[in-house]
Fold:
Amino acid sequence: MTKTALIIIVFLAAVACGILIGPTSLDAQILQLRIWRVVLGIFAGGVLAFCGCLLQGLFGNPLVEPYTLGSASGAALGASIGILVFGTINPFLAFLGSLGTGFFVYTVARIEGGLLRDRLILAGVVMSFLCSSLVMIIMVMGGRELYEILYLLMGYLGVIINDSNRIMIIALMIVSLGLVAFLYRFHRELDVISQGTETAAGLGINIQNFSLVIFFSSALLIGLTVSIVGAIGFVGLIIPHVAKLIFGPKHRYNLGASLVLGATFLLIADTISRIITVYELPVGVVTSLVGVPFFIYLYKK
Amino acid sequence: MLPSRHSIIFAAVLLVFAFLTCAQEKKGNDYRVVSLSPAMTEILFSLGAGSKLVGVTTFCDFPAETKKIAKVGDFSNPSVERIVGLKPDLVIVNLPEQGRIKRELDKLNIRTFVSSPASLAEMYEEISELGAAIAVQSAADSLISYMKSNLKPVVPAKRKKVYIEISPRPLVTVGSTTFLNSLIHDAGGTNIFGDLNRAYPVVTQESVIARDPEIILVLHPERITGRTGWQNIEAMQNNLVYDDLDPDHFMRPGPRLIQGFNKLCEILK
Amino acid sequence: MIALQIKDVNFSYDAARIIDGVSLSLKQGEFLGIIGPNGAGKSTLLRLICGICKPADGEIMLFEKPLAGQNQKEIARQVGFVPQETHFTLNFTVEDVVMMGRYPYQQPFMREKREDIDAQENAITAANIEQLRKRPVNSLSSGERQRVVIARALAQVPRLLVLDEPTSHLDLHHQHSIMELLKRLNADGLTVVVVHHDLNLASLYCRRLLLMHSGKIEATGTPNELIKKEILSKVYGTAVRIVRHPDKDVPQIFLHTD
Structure:
């Protein structure tokens, strides 16, 4: 219980930092802006870490995350196509990209009665490469869209909120929260699956259906997130590990902890990105810069 | 020293070009020019030298005659191979954006003309140099004096703070090293991000709000109304947001600048 | 009561017929050992019994109800399954692992109920792992871990316990203790089906044996009826010698060598 209190305090502190710390003094306008930024940070950090935790649990592999499964890259590709064709990020194309790569990876890895986990990662990484190449082609073809795609690939929270996208972003966030709540109910299944698919099947889990639901729901969630803030990396990989180090292997706790810790981590990274330069630094850059040393420290301990 | 394999290719290329230049010198002043700079393309046409252009970028879309000229790629990624294929005597490059292309052309001993004006004075200088380079000096001189008479710097009592938005996602504006920065100054305003020593910095919404511009120039097709947190910016309050501007009139240091400059002077009055 | 009734079951995987017309009847309280050479279809038969694989045709009845109409959770409340190998990718404690046997009885978000905790306690006691209960499962020896997995299956409160080579890779002491545990559970009324590689252990503990070969049932009967030179030599393709166990009057096998 003290651990729970501790991470909630740290989370609230990060929220406070996100709102109070910045290059300019706080007034009503800046406050509005920072609240939005903090909300986006909580949303993206929480969802990405949650998906990472979910996928690591499902596939019993600590390397699995939105990136290694190709979902994030697929979403980025879809969003880039949207930028090229419609001049703006189209959430539908981002989901489509994410689901499309998900579908491919799933088909490659699927075997009778389950998924070949090694093949899954391989297919995911291969798809990531393919999507990156296609995004590169779009960047070269587009020219003027280069900046936008670049920032989409790294992810940033300084998204402009205006009358035309405010409702949509709120709606996407509500859908995502619904999906998170829906997926949370599978915490027991994820615990059981960590003992092997054979055991899980013996205990009454339909592995095929379960994998399908988790895999595609999380692909959808990743697509939603990428369409709002871009493909922020590293959160989905590192945070579930931190959650497990603190709360142990039970998914009832570490799924929730991933949600809170992911939000906290992204808020801290974003606060750092805002104070070290006057420029808008993609938060994805900072997550890796801060995350890698932290990760090494944790694992050396 | 170059590795031997490279030097053979290098020598071969040199030989070919020596032959080509010999062949062309016989034709006298008939220069073959490739322009990678949309502004310089426009200038060449104003100088009556449009017929010398054998290659341009896909960004060179003015005047209409550019449609018929061979394209060598876009502004950021022109193809060196296509440029070489057009056997140009002179390639006009923009720096710093096309630094890589210039280095490659230098290696191939293809003559380049560098364009990177950061002010009106530098632009005049370049027009004059270009005129000399392709033997249209007198046309260049008259274009310069025409432009000078139409682009008279304004010195107001108080300079208005201007924010220029190039792209909304992310927010891209212009910094001190751009031509537009100096054009705003000449038209009697001051760029709120004129202190940033970059060409096109990506800035935060917060910094725009904190710098509270009196005028906003939108150089992309999107509208900027209804943004959260922007309501109290002075320009938004006074409705001094200009989003019907043609970016080419401001971003291209060429003859059409006169329209852009006059518009700016009107806005900043 | 008939615990398990299998009628003319076929199962194929990638065009290869793994189970070929198997029929079998098992009464409640029996202790059945399934033996046979590698690739005979023993593990697949177990998976069919647990509902992990669905038969291509034929019928399986579990406690006189067809398996086909039941969902996997329902089946898991009746059949406890101990797979051949268990990898623990997450380092749960022994208690947590045993509690996972309650999965088929639980709902999402709900805390463990009284009956879950009782079942967990009984399973821990029955498998004799009280002293290990707080230990992380990856710190255990493979023998200890096997007891934990059996305890997890017992927490399912099954009427039928199905084990796939529970003593492979174990030392003598653990082989003995696992088999004694199964014997005790069977004596308390649990029906046990165990796939065995070790014919001597099978002969020593199982009251009835089932010999499989190439997806078919080759023979069935008591150890005395089945562990015979001519039958085994034919199925395994190896010359064997049969002697009697000194304590218990059952056959034991030795390999023949010069």
Observations:
- The longest helix of chain A spans residues 28-59.
- Chain A has one domain: 2-14+29-283.
- Chain A has a mean pLDDT of 88.
